[in-house]
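Question thread 4412

I'm putting together a teaching handout and wanted feedback from people who do this every day. The idea is simple: show students a protein as raw sequence, then show them the structure tokens that encode its fold, then repeat with a second protein so they can compare. Below is the first pair exactly as I plan to print it.
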Amino acid sequence: MSTKPLLFKNARLVDPDTGREDKGGLLVRDGVIQDLGPQLTQAVDADIIDCGGQVLAPGLIDMRAFIGEPGGPYRETLKSAGEAAAAGGVTTVVSMPDTSPVLDDPAVIDFIVRRARDTSIVNILPAAALTKGLKGEEMAEIGRLKEAGAIAFTDGVRSVTNAQVMRRTLTYARDFDALIVHHVEDPDLVGQGVMNEGEFASRLGLSGIPREAETIMLERDMRLVRLTGGRYHAAMISCADSAEIVRSAKAKGLPVTCGVSINHLSLNENDIGDYRTFLKLSPPLRHEDDRQAMIEALNDGTVDVIVSDHNPQDVENKRLPFAEAADGAVGLETLLSAAMRLVHSDRVSLPKLLRALSMKPAEILGLPAGRLKIGAPADLVLFDPDAPYVLDKRQLKSLSKNTPFDEARLEGQVTITMVAGRIVFDRRSM
């Protein structure tokens, strides 16, 4: 339906596609960007929002979020995930197939598409299972699942250890131009490990997970991509050796991209401290040298996207001894604020950061969003990059509160989130 145009004026426009930063305005009409630039200071017959110099940028696109619905609505529903995403400036979320039932049937994919459209205030796009039942044994029906609305194919937190199965899925997906997203972690090498292998794990008396659990699986996948030519995205890498593997594959022209969790850019193994289970993640938090390597990989383009790895867990699964606690942390609402730490410490420029949070995910997924340009969807976030606050987990909109940033001092608060020209979050009215 046609609605009255809306002008954002006096904004700091940041376009991650071109890297340009301009002071000016942006006009939204009928759900798309109609005009923008320094010259745009007024518009006839339009509602006006004075941004007061705050940053106006494309809405964030999160390529990795676990949502409990269907099967685990006590953890997170599509509705609550949408509210959490909107509060964090995220306008599009890719949901993982680790649900009950698993998203390996076209009818279930269709249900998620319809349910998300009816209940979520942001775009939620389902990723379908790569193998049936997430068992890693038999390839899912990629063609039918894509037709039903699957945006990508992944086994979520599980790795496909059978190289022949992975080869077949890459080959089949290539013919449908489908994207394979893989969790690179060899479960046999992980074994009983619960955190990064090294001196700190020994001090805590916890079993370690070697970096090789990630790098061996990643190296195997690069060779299979070379063999098949299928489009491949490593869901998350976490160590320096993995960055070198991806860097080498890209230099050879392979159709490879990769992501990194905001947790692995902001935190290291020392943050686990006295067995803080909210920081028990998969892959585990690494050594500080690996964190620095991830930042450098983001700067040089080896790392394409930053994800929240939003994985809500209830209290019963987290209030346990560290070794027994479930992996995962919520992250949709803190994704932007935590990422702004890299900007405030002068490690990453704001346009480059937003590129990894919006434009590159859109490019990889084939979405028209992620850019400030005429005709693009009006999926936007207005935020104050310098606004300080202390995170109170009780105020999170997610149903689960397992955030690694509880009581952390953060900078950068979302003021307005807009999806398809409709304001879905407005801090000014809170």
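The second pair follows. I'd like the answer to focus on this one:
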Amino acid sequence: MKLFGSTTSPYVRKVRVVMAEKKLEYQFEPTDVWAADTDIAATNPLGKVPTLQFLKSGDVIYDSRVIAEYLDTLSPVGKLVPASSRDRLDVKVWEALADGVCDAGALARLEAVWNGRSEAERSQAWINRQLAKVQAGVAEMDRRLGDQPHCCGVHLTLADIAVGCTLGWLSFRFPQIDWRAEHPNLAQLQDKLEQRPSFAETMPG
């Protein structure tokens, strides 16, 4: 398998962490979708990463949620998505919440820094709206986590991976958001996750 992605993308990191936790081998193809000479559209018509290509067939799949769930089926090592409907739903809701925080954060960041707009064209009201979603999403993560050791009980799941990648990206891209001080339970979970080789080896940047 070949994974097209950026080392700063939380969605790509999620897939890379899953790959590591599942002990799957793959080639990593660094890809800047914003570069003028990018050819990512030849592999993914949406022009996004992560994109996973199967080298023998040439087939591709995209969207981190689709890729992560598929990868979990490839190896019995460290099952990340439960089979039972209720537990599975819980993990997928956590993942959607974490990805939603990243979505809002990415929209805020693009509005602030994308060079396709002049300073006069940027909307601070739009940035504030998206950052409010980030704050609300992180607060909901903290509420849902409570004092549990992991998002969905006592074992690592895809929920923890999604949350850990989101929080790591927030610290990387929005250091002014002091989510650790406001949400110590999340900070404790993040510290524990970042001790895992899968997280330590995929730090953004």
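Top answer:
Good format. For the second protein you could add a caption like this: The chain has two domains: 2-72, 85-196. Residues 21 and 198 are 6 Å apart (CA to CA).
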